[in-house]
Amino acid sequence: MSQLKPIADMIMHFNWKELVFVYQDDEYGRGLVPYLSDAMMNISTKVMQQTVIHPSASDDWIRAELYKLKTMQTRVFVVHALPDLASRFFKKVHEAGMMEEGYVWIITEVLTSRLHSLDREDMDSMQGVLGVKSYIPTSNDLIDFKKRWRRAFQMRYPEDEVTELDMFGIWSYDSVFALAMALEKVGNKANTTFRRDSRESTSDLDAIGTSSMGSSLVQLIRNSRFKGLSGDFHIVNGQLRPSVYQIVNIIGQGENNIGFWSPENGIFKKFNNRTNELKAVTWPGDTHVIPKGWEIPTSNDNKLRVGVPAKGGFVQFIDANTDPQTKQVIVTGFCVDVFDAVVGALPYAVKHDYIPFVTPDGKKPAGTYNELIYNLSDGKYDAVVGDITILANRADHVDFTLPYAEGGVSLIVPIKDERKSAWIFMKPLEKELWITTAAFFIYTGLVVWILEHRVNQEFRGRPGQQVGMIFWFSFSTLVFAHSKCVFSRTIYTPRQLLLILLRISVGEKLISNLSRFVVIVWVFVVLVLTSSYTASLTSMLTVQQLRPSYSDINEIKINGESVGYQENSFVKDMLKGMGFGEDQLKSYSTFEQYDNALELGSQKGGVSAIMDELPYIQVFLAKYCTKYAMTGPTYKTAGFGFAFPKGSPLVHDVSRAVLQVTEEQMLNISNQWFGAAASCDQQNGAKVNSDRLRLDSFKGLFLIAGLSSTSALLLFFF
């Protein structure tokens, strides 16, 4: 079964991914079946069908089987049959038109080695066939043996034409030589007497009996190796192991050697040039173009039937219409241009026709995208092109190419100008910063009260009055930010400046130096806070603040508000999976409907948000960038892809072409249909102000104030 290794390497060399195995229905033919399946599995090539032909099968039966094979997309055939059946089979192959360009026929070793026994008509029907056979190198001993063979044959059969000595004749000679060598090795060590068979003899051979040295001879013969007429004659466990195979191409009335194969080097052209390549091959149809190994079994001159979704909106992606006068289908859009570019990048020509997925009257879509995919898997189309998202449940029915457009699902929500908010004065600081600032106001006032209570008469009185003093003192420091002009234009000594700071800040005289120290630090902190607050608020009031009205889809769900989605899209199932009820979901078919629904809002019969895929969102926002924004998490999907039936050989080649188009042409195609969205992004960027002030930005200030107040308090207690 070693002949399968060069066959497998040859199939892998030409990158054929599927084949049909045709074999003779007898012990000879069936012997190769399990080994062939394993050999093809090792190179990731599928055996699409096994056709069994009985040696006595009629020509009509063979012809019917060939027409069945012709309807398949596979064009690579491996034939394992003896010359008598093979000669009849290939005549019918030629009659069925299966010896034309695009077909590949490979024959196994026995038939390849017996090509000389076929007549001219048989050879004419096998033009372009490839075959493998064991390689027997030319040597002086072999040339001399062939001369002696011819002389002996002519002397014994003078009236007959000399029979060509083939590979099996040479192997037979080497086998006898191996037996002779084994007899020499056994020599006198074994008893040469014969044990007569006790059963009734049916022939002279039976009467001879069994040699007692037979077992020794068998062991020597089953494992022998020597240099014979056939070259390296090597038998392992009773099986001949050819070391080198010859790959031939049938041309004219003979065979043309195109290369060799060995276990060490694989396929190579010549012994002195062992590069992994073959000589030029003449394929069926008298062509030198390497067959791709498959064809789409369609009508209309083998045109690919490409299904496309028909939709009223989102025409930038796909738009299919039929001319009412000429009845010609006109398909345009981003997806179509990408597919045309991909087909143009293939290494071979693929003709195709676009077929809209519409009702018989042609007025509306025939179903959802999932139903379009099911039609593809049922054989109504050869491919589906459009804004088809690659999903796991769809991949159970069809094969997708690599994605050619970005994947993901997100939300579109209206944006609002926060300058119109009644609480905008709270916006400059985050909630955590407001709380921390208030806590430090109280803490600083408490520390000053403790430090001044025993020595300062103004910090005494009724409990309510003292609590009021704590809050009054701490919060009154805010006026310093508005009173700094008192000393901004005059030069003061350090002592005068300190007294002004203290008096302006609290309106009271502080006696304790510790409390003065605490207040000075705190006034500095308040100065920084108020300056930052003023700057941030000023920016908010003078620069437009555009923020999404919602940042989380769960907020919309909890409020019982509505969400929109694209008609016939899988997004509806996603929303239901998130817990939205049927009454909360509304479908739309154009970008204009998106705009109207979002403007109305849920309270007026519209929606609070639209959930859609990123390519649609990007196109929508490019048009309505001043009114809406994308928000919330992005739910990952694989993106848009082209769909083909399960096992289609086009998937691999189209995926490679998608990568090429993505690198070389995708930007131009995108700009043609969607334009450059950078200008809209720049406008939005100019309208979005800096982030609100965070606690992290002032941690150092609060740390200084806290340490100052706490240190003064500890010193006071000590």
Task: Tell me what the structure shows.
It contains 28 helices and 26 strands. The protein is elongated and about 150 Å long. The strands form seven sheets. The protein has an eight-stranded mixed β-sheet with strand order 2-1-3-4-5-11-12-13, with helices on both faces. Strands 20, 21, 22, 23, 24 and 25 form a six-stranded mixed β-sheet that branches. A three-stranded antiparallel β-sheet has the order 8-9-10. By secondary structure, the chain is an alpha/beta fold. The N and C termini lie far apart (100 Å). Helix 16 packs antiparallel against helix 20 (513-542).
Attribute tags:
718 residues, alpha/beta, eight-stranded mixed beta sheet, ion channel, Peripla_BP_I, transmembrane
Strand content: 15-25%
As a whole number of angstroms, the C-alpha radius of gyration is 45 Å
Helix content: 40-55%
How many individual helices? Answer: 28
Topology readout:
Blueprint: H1 4-13, E1 18-24, H2 27-30, H3 33-42, E2 46-53, H4 59-70, E3 76-80, H5 83-95, E4 104-107, H6 109-113, H7 120-124, E5 130-134, H8 140-156, H9 167-186, E6 194-195, H10 204-208, E7 210-211, H11 214-222, E8 224-228, E9 231-236, E10 239-240, E11 245-251, E12 254-262, E13 266-268, H12 299-302, E14 304-309, E15 319-322, E16 329-332, H13 334-345, E17 352-357, H14 369-377, E18 383-384, H15 392-395, E19 398-400, E20 409-417, H16 431-452, H17 463-476, H18 480-483, H19 494-506, H20 513-542, E21 546-548, H21 553-558, E22 563-566, H22 571-577, E23 585-588, H23 591-600, E24 609-613, H24 614-623, E25 628-635, E26 643-645, H25 650-664, H26 666-674, H27 678-687, H28 699-717
Parallel strand pairs: 1-2, 1-3, 3-4, 4-5, 14-17, 14-18, 22-23, 22-24
Antiparallel strand pairs: 5-11, 6-7, 8-9, 9-10, 11-12, 12-13, 15-16, 19-26, 20-21, 20-24, 20-25
Helix pairs in contact: 4-5, 9-11, 13-25, 16-17, 16-20, 16-28, 19-20, 20-28
